Sequence to fold (222 residues):
Amino acid sequence: CNSSHPKDEL
Amino acid sequence: MNIFRLIGDMSHLLAIVLLLLKMWKTRSCAGISGKSQILFALVFATRYLDLFTAFISAYNSTMKLFFISTSLVTVYLMYFKFRATYDANHDTFRLEFLVVPVGGLAFLVNHNFSPLEILWTFSIYLESVAILPQLFMMSKTGEAETITSHYLFALGSYRALYILNWVFRYYFEGFFDLIAVVAGCVQTILYCDFFYLYITKVLKGKKLSLPA
Fold:
């Protein structure tokens, strides 16, 4: 899972 | 950024603009659930806190600021400026029945037990069910104005397009976020009944009325 911040999706 | 995400974001943007235009032009928020709008404002306020901790792109920051500010403007218009037209008698969904369980779930099921991550998870879970007060209100009144139907269609399409984006990203980038995917699917499923009515009625020029 790509779970860490920051999130690139809105 | 892929085409599904871009169209999804544009659809989300269109939904918000449609809602604001409807309220501004008719000077009324009749038929709109203020409770759903409060939830959306809460969704954006808890999800985009990383605006202060990280910079991703000008597009990303601009959209986040747009979503936060327009959701606050929407709540302001409903509860202050056009309050007299707000249909509170039909907007009776109990918000605590959504916020409390969703908050508990965000604490229990998250990627990382940190404040920012828990708030992001809370936001993702809350968004998936935030439309329920609006759907509940429509089931009570049995109808929706055509412009409200367009708003809901654009709003529902956005997450459906994100699902295609996640399929694309899984195959081409190896990106997979289980929490976002499950919540996004739940969110889209909640709209399915509405999508069916929209396609069979509104697109054929009829007003959206619900079967009794």
Q: What stands out?
A: The longest strand of chain B covers residues 143-144. Residues 146-173 of chain B form the longest helix (28 residues).
